[in-house]
Structure formats: C-alpha cells, structure tokens
Amino acid sequence: MMLEDDTSLVSYQIGGVFIGHSQEETQEMLETAKEALEQEVKSVEERVSEIQQVLGDLKVQLYAKFGDNINLEADES
C-alpha cells in the first residue's frame, strides 16, 4: 500500500482472478478478509479446546475402568 499515486489500481486476487481496485477499496477488502480469517481461527481454536476437554474426560473414564492396562498417550516418535 505504499503507492505514491492514489489513482493507481491495485491488483487483488479473488480465487484465481486478479481484479484491479483503488488503494482504498483494496485496503478495505484486505481488512474484511483478515477479520473473517481471524473469526474462523477463533472458531477452530474453540472447537479444538472442546474436543480436548472431551478427550481428557474420556481418558479419565478409561483409566478408571482399565487402570494401567491401557496406554492412551500418543507416541512421540
């Protein structure tokens, strides 16, 4: 966004196509895309947290039932 001329078109890729927009329009589109991605990341992180909680609860139940006869820890190899 360091163009000297405000009337120049900036190429913005949407899918497989580049579209020319003004610097201001491109900046707005980038901010909108950034906000959408941040929201998606937040949603995925919340889902991961929920799944990890369920996994922890299941491990507690299984270890309570089977004791040390099972290994539920992931291999680090």
TrEMBL record:
Keywords: Chaperone, Coiled coil
Gene3D superfamilies reported in the protein's UniProt record: 1.10.287.370
Bilayer-crossing regions: none
Domain of life: Eukaryota
Stretches of the chain forming a coiled coil according to its record: 23-61
Family: Belongs to the prefoldin subunit beta family.
UniProt protein name: Prefoldin subunit 4
Naturally occurring in which organism (per UniProt): Characodon lateralis
